[in-house]
Each structure stands twice: as structure tokens, then as C-alpha cells.
Write a structure and sequence with these properties.
37% of the residues lie in helices and 24% in strands. It is of the alpha/beta class and 316 residues long. Helix 6 runs parallel beside helix 8. The chain is globular.
Length: 316
């Protein structure tokens, strides 16, 4: 079988690691296996595959576990928690992919690269935390009490409940991009920039971790461009992007241009904490160079979406 020259970057949404709100480790590992089974056909088809995953529930759980209420200075920094979640989730996906590839008779290597992503220390996001992390609180009063006790910020998450929110600066560069490219170039599957990457800033020629969470889809869009991918495949909880979502005139989008999507954004069609970040990432990648395309669909339809029979395809 001849290798395709196309590199695909797959951005896995939260549904790729949990189902029905069950965040227990056995449940998440089970879903990782299912996700691997959905991705292996892409490797068998000859695509070079890079994978970026989310980490919202996991990083929140890590921080809750490692939080020192009596001595806040001893609590785990958020950037370190992101690094831990990269290792945790990367391990689950890596092992699941290795097992599924072996079962398919393939000897493709799989590696997780702990990835740092450079952000601007002057990004306005540091003054306006918006990114939800961790579990939902049962009500506003409980959330605000926790925020006061622990020195963080809580907000309502798109009508779903109250959660902690943290800064979400824009990604500017991926420190390990050459390592990722070289691994892909030698035929390995690479899991990288998990949770959007460990946020770092550049100070006096050195890298310094900062407490923030970078949007996974934004980092996926940037990394896809940096490694020369022509397709950004965003896998989420719906088969296609829709306008007028959950309304009588809901309409699914199949082939859509960047200009059309920008108009839909202006019309307020996409929820800020849900589809909007994915659509913005889709626009960013599709606009980066002629010939780029972004596809948004569900994990179960990854292969069919690449063939154009389902999913939303965004091009310039």
C-alpha cells in the first residue's frame, strides 16, 4: 500500500474521552479505545495522522485533587496540571491506538509529545477569564463560595451550570513543532498539543509556564498549519454544523465557505462555549493557505467525512 502524502490533523472533542458525563478512568479509557477504532481506518488508508485532544474535565479533576486549601501557594499550577493531563490522556489514546493498529496487522508507531504552546503575556484574555475547566457546581451560590475560598473565577457555562473559568490566550507558536513534523514524516502517529498545549511565554530568551488553558481547536488549527497539513478534521458531538440549532428551521451545513461562516458568526448562530471555537478554528485553518480544508463531524463518521459523504466542509 502506498502512503498518501496528505497529513491530517484530528482535533478530538470532549466526547472522544467521556460519555454521558462519566469521567471515571475506566469509562474514559473505554471511550479512548472506541475512538482509536474510529481513527485506525484513516491510518490504514495511508494518511499521516496527528491528533490533538481536549482536557477540560481531566485538568479540572487534577486541580481539584491537588488543591491545597490551607496553603494555596502549594497548590498545583494550572500549566503543570495541563502537562499532567497530556500524559494521562495521551497514554490512554496511545495505548488504544497501538493495540488497534497491531490488531489490524500494522506496525505503525504511536507517540505522545508533551507540547508547549507559546502565548503572548499581554494577551487580553489574562484580564478576562472565559475558558471553563473542571466539573459543574450544583448552583451559583456553591460556585461563588468555592471561588471566594480558592481565589478563582466562576461563570455560567452556556446555560449548563456554573464552572471555574480561566484565561484562554491565543496560541502563537508550538515549541515542539519540528519534533512533531519529523515524527509524522517517518510514518508515526503523533498525539500532541493535548488540551491546547501547555501555555508558556517567552521571557529573556527562556520559556516560562503560565496559568491558562489554550483553546484546543485554536491550537489544532495553528499546529495543522505549522506541520503542513491540508485537512483539519474536527471531531465533535454532531455529524454536521447547523444553523438555527434546535429550532424548527434548523439547517445542516454541508459545503460552506469562510465568508459564509463569518456571516453566520456575525448573526450569532454559534454558541460561544460550544460550536463557536470550532467554527473559528475552521475559518483560521481554511484561510491559512489555498487548498486547506476543515471538516467538522462526529468520530463515528470520520472516514465518510473525508470522502465527502457527511460532515461540514469549510474551504476558502
Amino acid at each position: 500500500m502506498s502512503m498518501k502524502t496528505e497529513t491530517i490533523l484530528v482535533a478530538l472533542g470532549g466526547n472522544a474521552l467521556e460519555r454521558n458525563g462519566d469521567t471515571s478512568i475506566p469509562a474514559q479509557k473505554s471511550v479512548a479505545v472506541e475512538t482509536a477504532r474510529q481513527l485506525v481506518p484513516l491510518v490504514k488508508a495511508g494518511y499521516r495522522l496527528a491528533i490533538v485532544h481536549g482536557n477540560g474535565p481531566q485538568v479540572g479533576a487534577i486541580m481539584l485533587k491537588e488543591q491545597d486549601l490551607e496553603n494555596p501557594n502549594m497548590s498545583m499550577p494550572l500549566n503543570t496540571a495541563v502537562a499532567m493531563s497530556q500524559g494521562e490522556i495521551g497514554y490512554w489514546l496511545q495505548q488504544a491506538l497501538q493495540n488497534e493498529l497491531a490488531a489490524a496487522g500494522m506496525r505503525t508507531g504511536v507517540a505522545t509529545i508533551v507540547t508547549q504552546v507559546v502565548v503572548d503575556q499581554n494577551d487580553p484574555a489574562f484580564h478576562d477569564p472565559t475558558k471553563p475547566v473542571g466539573p459543574f457546581y450544583p448552583d451559583q451560590e456553591t460556585a461563588e463560595a468555592a471561588a471566594k475560598a480558592n481565589g478563582f473565577v466562576v461563570k455560567e457555562d452556556v446555560g449548563r451550570g456554573w464552572r471555574r473559568v480561566v484565561p484562554s490566550p491565543l496560541p502563537k507558536n508550538v515549541v515542539e513543532k519540528e519534533l512533531i513534523f519529523n515524527s509524522l514524516d517517518t510514518g508515526h502517529v503523533v498525539i500532541a498539543a493535548g488540551g491546547g498545549g501547555i501555555p508558556v511565554i517567552e521571557q529573556d530568551g527562556r520559556l516560562v509556564g503560565v496559568d491558562a488553558v489554550i483553546d484546543k481547536d485554536a491550537s489544532a488549527s495553528l499546529l495543522a498549519d505549522l506541520i503542513g497539513a491540508h485537512t483539519l478534521l474536527i471531531l465533535t458531538g454532531v455529524d454536521e454544523v447547523s444553523i438555527n440549532f434546535k429550532k424548527p428551521d434548523e439547517t445542516s451545513l454541508s459545503d460552506v465557505t469562510v465568508e459564509e461562516l463569518q456571516k453566520y458568526i456575525s448573526d450569532g448562530q454559534f454558541a460561544p462555549g460550544s460550536m463557536l471555537p470550532k467554527v473559528k478554528a475552521a475559518i483560521s485553518f481554511a484561510s491559512a493557505k489555498e487548498g486547506n480544508r476543515t471538516i467538522i463531524t462526529s468520530p463515528a463518521h470520520a472516514g465518510a467525512a473525508l470522502e465527502g459523504t457527511i460532515g461540514t466542509r469549510i474551504t476558502l
